[in-house]
Amino acid sequence: MKNKYLLPFILLTSLFFLWGFALNLNPILIPHLKKACQLTDLQSALIDSASYIAYFLVALPAGLFMKKYGYKFGITFGLLLFAIGTFLFYPAAELRNYAFFLVALFVIASGLTFLETAANPYITVLGDADSATQRLNFAQSFNGLAAFLAPLAGGLFILSGKTLTPQEEQAMSADQLNEYLNHEASSVQTPFLVIGVVVLFVAILIWRTALPEIKEESDEDVSSGGSIWGEKNLILGVIAQFFYVGAQVCVSSFFIRFSDKVAGIEERSAAFFLSGALLGFMIGRFVGTYLMRFVAPSRLLAIYSVINFALLIIAIMTTGMVSIYALIGVEFFMSIMFPTIFALSIRGLGEKTKIGSSLVIMAIMGGAIFPVIMGRVSDMSNIQTSYIVPALCFIVVLYFALKNAKVKHVKLGTSH
What is the mean pLDDT of residues 269-295? Predict the structure, then answer.
C-alpha cells in the first residue's frame, strides 16, 4: 500500500470497528434497559427495531446524499449523527425514558448507515485494484473484533450483575425501587459519552485528512433487460437475507436473558459467554471461507442451515450449559451466511447488480422485525421457547441454498 494511503486506510478501517462495536452493544442494552425501564420482552426487542429500521429507511437517502455531496462529507455527517445519538443517552438515562433511548438508538444507527454505505467502496480505492478484496477482508476483520469486544465492555461497564427478583422488588419501598432503577439507568451514561467523544475525534481526523475521490464507474457487465422484480433468484435472496438477519439478531439479542433463565448464569458472566460466542462467529468466517475452497458455497450454506436448526432445537429442548453451548455453536455456523446469501443473490444480474445489491442490503430490516416477534412469543410462553423463531428462519435460508445448489463458485464481497 502506498504511504499516502496509510492514514486514510487506518481511519476508514476504524469505521468498521466503530459500527461493529455500536451494533453489538444491543445484546447488552436489551436486558439492561428491560431491567432499568421495567419492560416486557417484546418492548425490550424494540431496541433492535430502532437500530435496524434505520438501515431500511436511511440507506437510500444516504446514497443520494453522498452522490450529491461526496463520500467524505457523507462519512463525516454519519459520524456526527453517531456521536449525537450516543450523547442523547445521557438525558435519556436521566429521565429513564425508554422512548428517548429508542430515539437515540435510531440516530446512532442512521449514522452507522452512512458509514456502511461509504466504507466499502472507499476501502477498495485506497491502493492497487488487485489487492482491493484483501483490504476489504482485512477491514471487515475489525468489525468481527468489535463484535467480540463490545459484550466484554458492556458487561464490565454497563451491567451491574444485580437483577431483582419479584419478591425483592415487593420488599422495597417506592423510593428504594426508584433509586435502584435510576442507578441502573445511569450506568450507560459514561460509556456512551466516551464512545461519543471517540467518534467525534475520528470525525475531525476524517474531515482534516485528504481522501481520494471515488469516481463512479459504469457497469461493464452484459446488459440484462426486464424489471428487477423479474429476477426470481434475487427476490428469493432478499427474502432469505431478511430471515437470516432476523435470526442472527434474535440469537444474539436474547442470549443474556436466555442464559439467566435456562442456565442460571448472571448477566455479567452471560455477557462474557456472549463475547466468546461472537469470537466464534469471527473465527467461523475464516474457517468457512477456507472450506469454500473445497465445498460449494451453496452447499456449505445448506449444511450450516441444517446444523443451526438442529442446534436451536437442542437449545430449546435441553437445559443448563448444553443449551448455552448450542447457542454458541449457532453463532459459529451463522458466520458465512450473510456474505454467501449476498453473493448468490446478485450473481448474474449484469447491469442490475447495483440495485440488486441495494435490495439485499435493505433486507437487513429483518433485524427489526423478528426480535419483536420473538419477544412476543417469549412474553406468551418463555424465553427458551421463543428460540423457535430463529430456528424457523433457517428453514428459509436452507430453501434458498438448495435453489442455488448448482452454483459452484461465488465471490464474497460484503459482510455484516
Answer: 92
